[in-house]
Amino acid sequence: MSDGPVSVTLKGSDISAPKSFAHRVSSRLYASAKLRLRLLVSAPLLWLALVYVAALLALFVTAFWTMDSFTGEIRPDWNLDNFIQLFTNSLYQTVTLRTLGIALMVTVVDILIALPIAFFMAKVASPRMRGILVISILMPLWASYLVKAYAWRSVLSNEGILQWLLRPLGLDTPGYSLVGAALTLGYIWLPYVILPIYTGLEKVPQNILEASSDLGAKTWSTLRLIVFPMLLPAIAAGSIFAFSLTMGDYITINIVGGATQMLGNLVYTNVGIANNLPMAAAIAMIPIAIMFIYLSVIRKTGALDNL
Of all helices (H) and strands (E), which one includes residue 90? Predict the structure, then answer.
């Protein structure tokens, strides 16, 4: 019996054998974090390109077609008649300005309401109260959009709770009108504005506020010179939600807007009633163009750099 080293040879194995394709791929992925990230985001980006970008391109192409007024058939005859009608017809100009005005009003009002609420949640409220407020803000999101819109229809009616509260003051409910639609839209999109601002305020270090106070800065100066510049990306994110969602809305206007029309209503009318898909596509290009301009303006201010 020998006490020397024992060598073992594994049958069927060869260390010098070439690596399989799967092994080479896995080794490459393990060594490159950037490659793993690119492959991870490639699937959703491909889905976005096929479903969203391709749909927008199809919408844009359809806007140059025409509908035969006699047969009702859509003909791929390329022309600018739909866009010429948009720029020359006073109806579309009025509705565009109205839609833009309502979107801006809802955005500004929601930001003004969201700022103190988010500041109290992030910097003043106790952890227990903060959790209660977050749940209270999220609870309306659990309800159906239509339920909230019809609830406001009841509130704005002549016999609703708003009329009951305003009657002792000699005031009347705005009813089903432009103001009523703006109130409803402001309520529906308010959580989408509060949450980004609240998240942005949480990132503001408390010691910066304390240092500003120790150096003699007043509360308004601290908010204006320190908090607001740091909070600008969060405000921009909230404004994008409120502005874009209001620009494309048409259901709330139908429920509480009375005879008021917005761009979404015109798109719905041309698709569902007039069956004029090319004209509806041309009208849909207006809010898309406005959103591109809006995002470009916000980007130039630098508010999106840290998002």
Answer: helix 90-119
Rounded (10°) CA dihedral 19, 21, 22, 26: 80
User: Residue 75: which H helix or E strand, with range?
Assistant: strand 74-75
Go through 81-120 and write b for each residue having 16 or more CB atoms within 10 A of its CB, e for each that does not: ebeeebeeeeebeebbebbbebbbbbbebbbeebbebbbe
pTM for the whole thing? Answer: 0.81
Per residue in 73-127, pLDDT tens? 888 888 899 999 999 999 999 999 999 999 999 999 999 999 999 989 998 899 9
Radius of gyration for the chain, computed over Cα atoms and rounded to the nearest angstrom? 29
Q: Name residue, tokens 């601002």.
A: 197
Task: Locate the domains of the chain by residue range.
Answer: 22-62, 89-300
- The one-letter code for the residue type at 71 is T
Assigned CATH for 89-300: 1.10.3720.10
